Amino acid sequence: MNYSSRKAIVSILMGALFLGSCSNNEQTEEKVIQQTYSVTLKGITVSGEESSEELKDVSVFQFSDGGLYKAEQLNPGKDGQSEISAVSGSRLYFLTGLEEAMGENVTSEEEFRNMVIGEGLHDNSAPSFMAAVVELESGVVTRGGTEINVAMKRGVARIDLNTTADSKTKIKEIIVEDAPAETFLFIENKQASDKTVNYRKEFGSDFNGEQKEVFRIFESMRPVHIVLRGTYGEVPIRLKVELPVVERNKVYELTVLNVGAKIEGNFTIKPWEEGETIIGKPDTNHRILLSASKSKIPGEVKVNYENNILEIPATGVGEMTLAFVSDTPIGISSTEGVGDDVNVGSISMSEEAEGIVSAFNVSVNAQGNGRLGYAVRVHLKNVLLDGTYDYVEIRVAPSDKQIETVEIGGNVWMAFNARSRDLDDQIYPLDGAAIEDMYRTSWINTVGGLFQSGRLYMYVPWQGYNPSNNLGNQVADTPWQKDTHMPCPEGYRIPTVAEWQSLLPAGQEIPSTYKAGNGETIIATLHVGEGKLITPTGVTGTQHYVKFTSEETKRCLIIPLVGGKGDKTTSNNPGFGKRAVLWASERNGCPGGYAWAYWLPFEGAERTTIKKQQLQMEAFASVRCVKK
């Protein structure tokens, strides 16, 4: 605004003065006119500048007894001094830069002092103005006059930018969010209203260097946020920093530091006025969290966004997109637990208003029968921030059709004999059938296969004639401990001698009642299944099984008398109903080529004695797995 327009507004305000104003003891019939005295303004400078030129173009408004006494334009002489007449006890309001924003008929000092400006004055920055208030206490102004110095304060703060710390840092855009839309002309450290405004500056080419007065901002008692978007080398960056408060008449220099190791925005307050240093930087203590708005996750998947946990149903999920919003791209540093059933895609990146959006796709196959629940972890890293790591955990529910188990004798046992490591190949009760129902009515479907010690592949002689002593030329694992050789499904293993001894103590006569190794009372009974035994090759026998029941818990483990097959036997008849032979995992104390097995050798009788017996490793016996 130029000098002539300010004079015009001063004239308008002068028109609002009360009638009859005059000087030195003149009176009207209605009111005694206040005495006025000479005030010399030694100079009007800008507060906080180490050196500044005196201001030549300032309006002054004088209020006395709550009313506007005088408004005038200052005309400093060659020495920078101005003379005005003032009333003792009055207040002088000095203003430059925004007289056009003032109301034209304000006569009350309270209205004048609480004047709010801002609407219609923003041009991608707050409008610049300066103001000061001087109170002439009663008795200060004397007949001989007095001298005062006026230090004007800018009504805005200034934001400068400095990116010279690292030449790889290029800034494309700066955005100011939550800046005050209004402020008081003369009142400091008070919020004028809740209205806010945003500013945006785009650089014609990626900027690296120093730039003063990128923005001007009204003072704010609430946080103001500044977002910088750009690149570090070829990597996009987005830095959001916060000024907790913004004070007028201060310069805030935003310096971007150390981007290659840790993005840090450092706000330093410089003259105009000195002040504290405010640090603005990403909070590396915060997690890299899933974005609910940017991720695409089917409704059947349960998501804990606070902890980055996804719960996938046993039916699996075709494809979902996991997305993260951050200041810099997020990368996948490693994966844990990923198998053939889970596919984790490569990560992609896009720049959006909220920040850098990093995303990758995940698909999970449906669980097979008996598959245990499992978890996959995708480990994440912020590409440019040292020490900023996190992970997403994908938890897949167990199969609806689970392996049946029995806890007895101090261990958890599979309810049926093993067939292979494949979960889909295990024995499961028919729909609606209990475990004992299967042994009683479908005995041949409960007995599993026969295995050589230390080897993985089963032999089912009653399904087809095969005299081979080593199916598939397997290498034996002795002792039988490696998962790669063990015909137990995931989460299970071959029992040890001690575990068998706890449940089936050698020398114990059965059927009978006895104590297991853990102190449980076990009731052992012999049973026979219903119907006629039918096999594909015509092998016959009795469908016997032994039931071991805990008297305390009523839980029972059933072992079918499926028989066994010697290593040089050519017959495909294992001796159904005569005995049960069950491998242990150990061969300690056995001669070469032998391992331990536990026997229930009824051999057609109604009673027997449990045996712990050495058996040729090339022989074929049953495997009953115990939980790891």
From TrEMBL:
What InterPro entries does the record point to?
A: Fib_succ_major
Q: Which residues form the Fibrobacter succinogenes major paralogous domain?
A: 406-627
User: Which Pfam families did the record assign?
Assistant: Fib_succ_major
Where on the tree of life does the source sit, at the highest rank?
Bacteria
Which PROSITE patterns does the record cross-reference, listed alphabetically?
Answer: PROKAR_LIPOPROTEIN
Q: Which protein, by its recorded name, is this? A: Fibrobacter succinogenes major paralogous domain-containing protein
Q: Which organism is it from?
A: Bacteroides xylanisolvens
